[in-house]
Write a structure and sequence with these properties.
The protein is of the alpha+beta class. It is built from 10 helices and 7 strands. It has 2 domains: about 190 residues, no CATH class; about 140 residues, Histidine kinase-like ATPase, C-terminal domain (Heat Shock Protein 90).
Length: about 425
């Protein structure tokens, strides 16, 4: 399990470690002062003072590092925790080893690792703390204050072993359960972020749909007027002239617009009733390409449709048809010549690959593509890819764009077939 860390969260975790380390240093300093004042210097002050100065220096350097605009990685936090364990091990070595009542502080690095680092680092820190605690049972400088009853060695040993066993169980439980809890919390946070993004996208789609419905309603009358005027002009112009050809093309485009509005109204009624007719994947793909070619007669394209499973029938929602048209339109707008379209499918997925020789995707817009009103075309509204991505995501598919070398864009579209209940597929 690899958690998703940002620059801010990594620096926050390291900042918390600096604060905790500062409190530990203050407590060690107070302990040294009390030892000199009340306990007649039973502790070896020179080694402890040296390690305390080193610990303080490391903490100050870490604090200075946090002031720089550099990302904090998992490895860096892991190394910082290793430094803490090493310094504490030296302190406990000179202050009674496992007899020191504060030796259970080794659980703090374990807890910090369990809540901030991937599991491989967490188990490494836990294992290191257990090994260090175990070594301190046998290798340390004893203190009379912490071992006042040496003639009851067996009782003392049982007590220390009981402390070690308690630490071992606590470290294992913390490592296992806290890692699982942290993982569940991250997954839940990711799900909440995904739901918030979906809600925002749905709100944007609703706004776009409302505008589209109003616009479609208003386009009927102008299209009818344009149709009448173009028909009259065609009767007045000789059929063999360039003007007549242009008027014929304009008339065809008006017919396409009128047919699209009519089809939009029909699809809205079908969507409301939920009655869609299954069709073969092959015929669906051919219809999409034919409709696109009628809309763009200037386009030259190499089309390859691999009918690997020709017997598959599927209910395609009308929005999927429009999503594919949007992707093809983007390729035509980028560069209308030498467009390559490759379509293939199996019993689970339908794949489209569309290659154009346009200028490609600007690097400064790569992360923003797919959002509303973001476009790489000077005349576009930035809605085609946004609607395509929202439609395919809703049905379990995706659209991905890549820059080709030396020029152009590769667009990949995946649409799940009969295995997806959202599409209502059947054989």
């Amino acid at each position: 399990m690899e958690p998703l860390y940002t620059r801010t969260s990594g620096k926050t975790h390291l900042g918390h470690l600096v604060i905790i380390r500062s409190l530990v240093i203050v407590c060690l300093l107070i302990g040294g002062i009390l030892n000199s004042w009340l306990l007649e210097n039973q502790l070896p002050l020179i080694p402890l003072a040296s390690i305390l100065c080193l610990f303080t220096l490391i903490n100050l350097l870490t604090w200075g590092r946090l002031r720089k605009e550099l990302p904090v990685t998992d490895v860096e936090i892991f190394i910082q925790l290793l430094i803490d364990v090493a310094c504490l091990a030296v302190v406990f070595y000179f202050s009674g080893g496992a007899n020191n009542p504060f030796v259970s502080y080794f659980l703090v690095p374990v807890c910090l690792a369990a809540t901030t680092l991937p599991w491989i680092y967490v188990w490494s820190i836990s294992l290191l703390c257990i090994i260090t605690y175990t070594l301190l049972l046998f290798f340390h400088i004893p203190l009379p204050l912490l071992s006042p009853h040496q003639h009851h060695a067996s009782s003392i040993n049982l007590h220390v072993l009981g402390m070690w066993l308690n630490f071992f169980i606590s470290a294992v439980l913390i490592t296992f359960f806290v890692v699982r809890i942290a993982r569940d919390l991250r997954q839940r946070e990711e799900q909440l972020n995904g739901h918030r993004e979906d809600q925002l996208r749905d709100e944007q789609l609703m706004a776009v749909a409302t505008l589209a419905a109003g616009t479609a309603h208003e386009l009927g009358t102008p299209l009818a007027t344009m149709k009448v005027i173009v028909s009259e002009l065609r009767r007045e112009v000789d059929s063999g002239t360039q003007t007549a050809q242009d008027l014929a093309l304009l008339s065809d485009q008006i017919d396409i617009c009128a047919h699209t509005l009519k089809q939009l109204h029909q699809q809205a009624e079908e969507n409301q009733s939920g009655q869609f007719i299954p069709q073969s994947v092959s015929s669906f793909c051919q219809q999409v390409i034919e409709r696109w070619q009628i809309m763009h007669p200037e386009v030259t394209a190499q089309i390859c449709i691999e009918e690997q499973c020709p017997d598959i029938h599927q209910i395609f929602h009308p929005t999927i048809n429009q999503a594919l048209i949007n992707v093809l339109n983007n390729a035509a707008d980028a560069h209308p010549q030498n467009i390559r379209i490759h379509v293939s499918w199996d019993d689970r997925q339908l794949h489209w690959q569309i290659e154009d020789e346009g200028p490609g995707i600007p690097l400064d817009l790569v992360d923003q593509l797919g959002k509303a009103f973001i476009t790489t075309k000077g005349h576009g509204l930035g809605l085609g890819l946004f609607l395509t991505q929202a439609t395919l995501n809703r049905h379990g598919g995706y659209v991905r764009l890549y820059n080709r070398k030396p020029v152009g864009t590769l667009t990949e579209v995946m649409i799940p077939l009969s295995s997806s209940p959202a599409l209502g597929g059947n054989r």
